[in-house]
Amino acid sequence: MEIYELSVSEIIKKLKARELTTTEVVNAYFKRIEEVEPKVDAFLTLTKEDALKRAEELQKKLDNNEKLGTLFGVPIAIKDAICTNGVRTTSGSKMLENFVSPYDATVIEYLKKEDAIIVGKTNLDEFAMGSSTEHSAFKTTKNPYNLTRTPGGSSGGSAAAVASYMVPCALGSDTGGSVRQPASLCGVVGLKPTYGLVSRYGLIAYASSFDQIGAFTRNVEDLTLVMNTIIGTDEKDSTSIEREKEDYTKFLVNDVKNIKIGVPKEFYGEGLKPEIKESVLKAAEKFKEMGATVEECSLNIADYCLATYYIVACAEASSNLARFDGIRYGYRSPNATNLKDLYKKTRREGFGEEVKRRIFLGTAVLSSGYSNKYYSKAQEARNAIKAQFAECFKKYDFILTPTSPCEAFKFGEKTDDPLEMYLADIYTVPINTAGVPAISIPCGYTESGLPIGMQLIGNYFSEGKMIQTAYSYEQNTNWNKKPEFKED
Amino acid sequence: MSKEDYEIVIGLEVHSELSTNTKIFCSCPTDFGGEPNTHCCPICMAMPGTLPVLNEEVVKYAVKAGLATNCEIAIESKNDRKNYFYPDLPKAYQISQYDEPLCKKGYIEIDLGETKKKIGITRIHIEEDAGKLNHDPYGRGSLVDLNRAGVPLIEIVSEPDMRSAEEVDAYLKKLKSILEYIEVSDCKMQEGSLRADVNISIRKKGAKEFGTRTEMKNMNSFRSIVRAIEYEADRQIEIIDNGGKIEQETLRWDDVSGKTFQMRDKENAQDYRYFPDPDLIKFTVSKETQELIKESLPELPESRKKRYTEEYGISERDSNILVSSKYYSDLFEKANKISNNPKAVSNWIITEITRVINEKEIEQSEIPFSAEHLGELVILIDKGTISSSIGKKVLEELFENPRKPEEIIKEKGWIQISDENVIEEIVVSVLDANPQSIADFKAGKDRALGFLVGQAMKQSKGKANPQMLNSRFIELINNKY
């Protein structure tokens, strides 16, 4: 077995057992990156030098018998929307093409403290707005299973990097599905935690009340180790929730006997590819076989969920992205003649189309005379969505849905029609709207060999049981076909 | 119609910087000055990914201001974003409060000569200050200094209850003194820690409807505010008198030309697109906390004034002057504690000290000497060590080079001459030189005595004890001449 094929827990074990050195691990991964990255284009920045230096420091730590962190020596990739001190952080935008963050995001501090090794920053849709990573200002990331198709998005780079074994784990961020949808399209595990479980400090904001940092791994056990590292109350983030840290490895138990799963019929209707529907319903059957209670249920929010999400998220985005004005950092138009012109040209030249579209939308729905009709109304709808979820969770531990209505789609397939692209998030957006956690795990392949993912949605802070449920399914199935980098 | 047929209606929005140690959403210092961009961090510079965390001290300070102005305090409150672009506003939105201010429905009472008047406080809310632009005098561009960005402010919005520039002046002075007393702001107008937007309209006397108002932004001296109001009221009256209409607009007062200029008209009014800041959570000030803050409030000017008039017998007018500023009032209290002569201390503050700071054009807070110095000065006069005219010289010296008054008089040789022999010598020599005055005095002209004492003081360079001179002159003239 190649080093790059090891799981997170295996790497840690072998390092501690002195079967490998941290430098060997890092070199193995960079060798893999050199082979595969030219095909996949998952990374915007690679930090090989820093990683090797860190590896040496960590090996000394091990040799000196010092206390080792929970992710000791584990290479990890970071979505480029998360700030890393001294390293270029672009958020996929020309606006921040040369921006070097002067500080570490809280999750990065945690990763460093727990001895993880950052190998690079991954590609994304500009400012995390998109579902295919095609909206990156810099490059197009390819789906490792089929290089003519997108990896999903917006955390497409992280998903593709994990799927193609360039790293065993990666961080992403999920505002409307940006971890789960690419996880699904790339055949890996992706978790969007409860809003407030992971600090947002240092995550370049798209929509503050939806954004949440999540993780990608190739199996559920690895996910628990990454999650154990990144969760925790953070006094730098007012929306981070004060809560005692859980140890998710305790939930690696193959048992779903007391788990009740609802299958909401509204999520299996029009627009869902039959192959995907079949796979997810088979997974429901599998859960039943494994001893869980599985019932059809109703969660009737699809009609207004997408509108609610795009109104509130874009409103927040229009304000969050106002700071990119060419004054203090980032891109500044060289063609401006006065202050107003500087603002206009900087933003016209620095932002891509999709970002501008969402800023326009958000500005409009907050404008005087429209704010009540749109923004306030959407907030009401948001409360109604939360109430519907709450109702569901009175009866069920988890709700099972497809993660994405379609498998990995071709480049350009949806870029001409923004609405078509927005529909790719139809199953993931409601979760961020309610703030509850959800996980995407592989549950099959299409006939053409593309991964299919299913989504388990849980109540607030149900990550532990959610991990147990996902782990049990994983133990009883075998969806780990390696990507072949097909070119047609 | 004449000016007297109109009534001026004025409301104020006062911004006051709070004197908390750290900024409102990060832990940078709030100190005024400092090299540009040295009191900053990724948060107040709005680096991508940073988040605000509300400084609880700011809430406490604002609640203090609310309680001291008789406001209702909201138990639950939130922060909103006010969106607009300007280079001094790093996030391109200001975190403020929109529809749920922390304090509302208060009032303060102002003194207008013999009468008092209540001015309503609509609301007080918390928000962050912006940075500062330093414009290159040679037109080569502007530099942004973010030291001030994120310094906490309260905005105090009054009802349109004021009817003249005098009322505005009284309101501002009262408000300033309250904020100083409760120690939430140092109210240094020249440093911009207290500034006001003035809303003004006119209407015919007796009219019920308000006229269209104009707003004058960012005024930062009492004098300009009074001048600006007078100018703007006249301008509006003239327009109406000539059959014109007042346009709702934002104006800028130019102190040099003494005129207002348009900043933007109604059509160009900004749409701030307020919405609740999703990075911050609702915050609460429980009834219990409010009670605790209330109990911690120091004695307010009204109550001090009552003590001054009733216990010390100081006139209403003088008491008003003393309590109008916390610096004066504190100076008075401390100096009085030492000298135990309230009337003398009050006189020194109101006449001499005020005269000197007016001459020097400095703020009361910039008085360089301590209350102990003033108290000791009063004692030296009371004991007869120096005369009050020497006292004035000592005071001048205290402003120049503050140190113990006793040291000053020793050093300068200003100790009062109370030696009977020396006094006798001076009196005799003055009498010898002024026979006419002796005659005048005998003829019943009291003024002659004053002249003689004056001459004696001159001769002694102000050091002779005037009471002793006085009585010795009378004795000698009556007995010997």
Report Rg of chain A: 21 Å
Beta-strand content estimate of chain B: 15-25%
Q: List how many beta strands of chain B DSSP finds.
A: 16
Number of domains of chain B: 3
- Distance from N terminus to C terminus of chain A (CA atoms, Å) equals 28 Å
User: What is the CATH superfamily label of the domain at 3-254 and 438-475 in chain A?
Assistant: Amidase signature (AS) domain
User: Which percent band covers the strand fraction of chain A?
Assistant: 5-15%
Our count of helices of chain A gives 15
- What class, by secondary structure content of chain A? alpha/beta
Oligomeric state of the chains present here: heterodimer
Order of helices and strands of chain A: HHEHEHEHEHEEHEHEHHHHEHHEEH
Descriptive account of the structure:
The complex is a heterodimer of chains A (488) and B (481). Chain A has 488 residues and is α/β, with parallel strands linked by helices. Chain A has 15 helices and 11 strands. Chain A has a domain of 290 residues: Amidase signature (AS) enzymes (Alpha-Beta Complex), CATH 3.90.1300. Chain B is an alpha+beta fold. Chain B has 15 helices and 16 strands. In chain B, the strands form 4 sheets. Chain B has a 9-stranded mixed sheet with strand order 2-6-7-10-1-11-12-13-14. In chain B, strands 5-4-15 form a 3-stranded antiparallel sheet, with no helix packed on it. In chain B, helix 9 packs antiparallel against helix 10. The interface between A and B is large, with 44 and 28 residues.
Features:
heterodimer; A: 488 residues; alpha/beta; Amidase signature (AS) enzymes; 11 strands; 12% strand; globular; B: 481 residues; alpha+beta; Arc Repressor Mutant, subunit A; 3 domains; nine-stranded mixed beta sheet; 20% strand; elongated
Structural topology:
The complex is a heterodimer of chains A (488) and B (481).
Chain A: H1 8-16, H2 22-40, E1 43-46, H3 48-63, E2 75-79, H4 106-113, E3 117-122, H5 156-163, E4 169-173, H6 180-186, E5 189-192, E6 213-217, H7 220-230, E7 260-264, H8 274-289, E8 293-297, H9 302-320, H10 339-350, H11 353-366, H12 372-395, E9 398-402, H13 418-423, H14 429-434, E10 438-445, E11 451-458, H15 463-475
Parallel strand pairs in A: 2-3, 2-4, 7-8, 7-9
Antiparallel strand pairs in A: 1-3, 4-6, 5-6, 5-10, 9-11, 10-11
Chain B: E1 6-17, H1 56-68, E2 72-73, E3 76-77, E4 80-83, E5 93-96, E6 103-112, E7 115-128, E8 132-135, E9 142-145, E10 152-158, H2 165-181, E11 194-204, E12 214-219, H3 222-241, E13 249-254, E14 259-265, E15 275-276, E16 283-284, H4 287-296, H5 301-312, H6 316-323, H7 326-339, H8 342-360, H9 371-382, H10 388-400, H11 405-412, H12 420-433, H13 435-442, H14 447-459, H15 466-480
Parallel strand pairs in B: 12-13
Antiparallel strand pairs in B: 1-10, 1-11, 2-6, 3-16, 4-5, 4-15, 6-7, 7-10, 8-9, 11-12, 13-14
Helix pairs in contact in B: 2-3, 5-6, 6-8, 7-8, 7-9, 9-10, 12-14, 12-15, 13-14, 14-15
